[in-house]
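so my prof wants the structure for this chain in the C-alpha cells format not the other one, which i didnt know existed until like an hour ago. anyway here's the sequence
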Amino acid sequence: MKFLMERGYRKGQVDKVRKMSRAEVLSNSNQPRSIKTPFVVTYHPRLPDISKILRELHPILESSERCKNAIKSVPFVAFRKPKSLGDYLVRPKVDSCGPKYLLLGMFREMFVETM
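here's what i got, hopefully its the right format
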C-alpha cells in the first residue's frame, strides 16, 4: 500500500480496490465505449495544428446528412511514424521464394555446375 501511496494514489482509492475481489477488479467496466474516429496523418514537425483545423471545419461535414451519419463527432488526430533512413536502406529479413543459392549470392557457381 505504501508503494501505491508514493505513486500518487489516494488512500480512499487504494482502500476501495483492496476490498474488492481480484475478478471484480479485472472485470470490464460497464461504461459505454466512446466511438471516436481517428484521423491518421504521417508526422512531420512543420505540420499545422490539425486538430484545430478539424474542429473549425467539422460544421461543414455536419451540413450533409450523409457525412453527419458517417462522422458523428470531431475526429481525433493520430500520428503515424514516418519512414526513417534506415527503413529505406535496410532490407527486411524475409526469405524469397527462389532457390537457396540465389539468396547466398552463389548464382554463377550453381549455374556453371548445372551446365
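also thought this was worth mentioning. The mean pLDDT is 80.
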